[in-house]
Structures are given as C-alpha cells and as structure tokens.
C-alpha cells in the first residue's frame, strides 16, 4: 500500500495538467541528441509510429492515427524522446509516411503506395490508431509526405526514420536538404560482411544506427562481431537496434556494445509482433507487470525502448527508483 501511494504521489508531482492533456517537460531535439549519445544518459523512449494509443493516465482517452501529425504532437506533449516513423515512395517519386506497402489498413483507400501519385496519396484519410478491422473509424487527417512530417517535427522532437524500400539515398538526401541531419536518426540492417555503414554513402552525412536482426537472411550467428565491426567506423554510432535476438545472443551483443560505448535499443512491440530480445516480453506484458519487462531489461543493460505504449513507459520511469 505504501509503495502504491508513493508511486502515485511521484507520478502526480511529475505530471502537468493542460486542458485535459497531461504533459511532461519536453526536451529539445538538441538535448535529446546529447542524451542519445550518452550511454549513461538514462532510458531513452521511442514512440513506435508516434503516440497513437490512448493514454488514460495522461488524460488521453482516445487513440489517434499511427504515423500522423497528431500522433507526433501527442509525443511532444508527453515528453517522448523520439518518434519512429516509416518512409516509402510514390509513383512520381515523392517520399511519404506510410508503414505498409499498401494503404488498405490505415486509410480509406486501397492499393500500393508505389502505384499512386503524391496527389492520390494526399487525397486519402487516415483511420484511427492501427486501422484495419480493429480501428476502422476514419479521421479528417491526410497522410503526410516526408517533407511535411519533418517540417512538423523541426525543432520539436527527434525522429527515427524506418525506410521500408531501397530508397535510403533519397531519404538521406531529403534529410540533409532539410537541414535536419542531427534531428533524424536513419537506420539500416548490418550484415556480417558489411563495413561500418556510418562511414559509407548515403549514411555518412546523417545520424545513423545499425540494426542486427537475428532472423535476417545472411545475418549469421556471431551478432556480437557485427556490433563490433559497425562500431569501428570513423563516425560514431549512438546505439544498435536489436531484432529477435535469443537471450544467449543478447549477452554477447551486450558485452560488445559496452566495450564500444553504445546503447542497446530494444523493441517491445507485441502489438505488431516485433521483439528485440525473445523471452524478455513486450508492451502487453509490460502493461501488466512493468518491472518484469521494462525493469528487467533496464537491469540487463537496455537503455532505449521502442514501444507502442510510451505514456505507460514514461509513467513507469517516473516512479522507478533507478532509471
């Protein structure tokens, strides 16, 4: 009872009520970048496709569309460190924000993004939250181009760009052209025979993070060696993203990351079936028992979480004795 009361008091002290929206102090992108680059800088919270889920503890009782400008605004209000979003290209070469190959799940349209013009794409309207049969309700918000999304984030919050097609060069060029190379974290899969990607085109002009995916063809069993090689470049990488690592692989990767001074980025995305370290649990488990999922992983050495429940994670961190 005393522990529960203490947690509640700490949370209420931390939260600020603003017109029904409970918000926390938002760090600038420059502050978030310094935090990201500091392996001992505390837990770094990344909102998967924006803050699209309801957050009752913050007075947000309704969801908002994934990868929407509203979901980005909500992340800024909540005090999230970074927003993850997805980039594709239209038929006429415009870079746009969309996770799936098609627009069927998340909008009132149908068909492949690659078969649409940008004008066709902008006429669509986003469905609530994850869309599909679970969230079919339409909103009045159109999906964004990458330029629109970056302009909306400029000076407000860092972005992590998950590039869903082989268009990394175009995306990197757009980020540099926008003058946001230090506000946008670009990532790509690193294979065993790949030299340090951070020193290679198109990533050498951007903020970059390698991903190691245990089920990626050609990844190989020695994932720790991949981390060591990717960390050996002339340009520093802040972290390495983990995808579907077995616990025994995680131990070796953690040691390699510690030696290189890197953060470990873990995914707890049970809603979409992506987990950083298998058997460590995900968001749905964390909502029931945060100490056994987020807390356990923090103790194990994870310091970046990509989550669909950023508000719940922030609430947990606010009441946890050691972040």
From TrEMBL:
Keyword Secreted: no
Organism: Caulobacter segnis
PROSITE patterns, per the entry: GP_PDE (PS51704)
Keywords: Signal
PANTHER family per UniProt: GLYCEROPHOSPHODIESTER PHOSPHODIESTERASE 1
Pfam family, one: GDPD
SUPFAM superfamilies: PLC-like phosphodiesterases
Name of the protein in question: Glycerophosphodiester phosphodiesterase family protein
Signal peptide range in chain numbering: 1-24
Domain GP-PDE residue range list: 43-323
UniProt keyword Signal present: yes
Top-rank taxon, per record: Bacteria
Family annotation (Gene3D superfamilies): Phosphatidylinositol (PI) phosphodiesterase
């Amino acid at each position: 009872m005393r522990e529960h009361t203490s947690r509640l008091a700490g949370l209420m002290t931390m939260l600020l009520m603003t017109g029904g929206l409970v918000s926390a102090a938002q760090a600038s992108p420059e502050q978030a970048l310094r935090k990201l680059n500091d392996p001992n800088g505390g837990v770094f919270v990344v909102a998967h496709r924006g803050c699209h889920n309801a957050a009752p503890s913050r007075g947000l009782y309704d969801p908002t569309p994934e990868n929407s400008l509203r979901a980005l605004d909500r992340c800024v209000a909540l005090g999230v460190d970074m927003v993850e979003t997805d980039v594709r290209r239209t038929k006429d070469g415009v870079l746009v924000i969309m996770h799936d190959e098609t627009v069927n799940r998340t909008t009132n349209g149908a068909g492949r993004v690659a078969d649409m013009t940008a004008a066709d794409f902008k006429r669509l309207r986003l469905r609530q939250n994850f869309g599909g049969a679970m969230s079919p309700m339409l909103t009045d918000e159109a999906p964004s181009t990458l330029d629109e999304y970056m302009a909306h984030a400029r000076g407000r919050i860092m972005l992590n760009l998950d590039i869903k097609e082989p268009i990394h060069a175009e995306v990197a060029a757009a980020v540099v052209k926008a003058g946001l190379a230090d506000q946008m974290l670009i990532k790509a899969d690193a294979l065993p025979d790949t030299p340090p990607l951070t020193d290679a085109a198109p990533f050498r002009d951007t903020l970059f993070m390698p991903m190691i995916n245990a089920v990626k063809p050609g990844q190989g069993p020695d994932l720790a060696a991949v981390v060591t090689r990717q960390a050996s470049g002339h340009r520093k990488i802040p972290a390495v993203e983990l995808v579907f690592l077995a616990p025994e692989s995680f131990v070796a990767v953690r040691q390699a990351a510690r030696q290189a001074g890197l953060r470990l980025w873990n995914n707890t995305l049970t809603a979409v079936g992506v987990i950083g370290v298998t058997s460590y649990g995900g968001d749905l488990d964390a909502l029931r028992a945060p100490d056994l999922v987020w807390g356990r992983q923090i103790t194990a050495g994870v310091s970046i979480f990509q989550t669909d429940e950023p508000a719940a994670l922030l609430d947990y961190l606010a009441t946890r004795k050691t972040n």
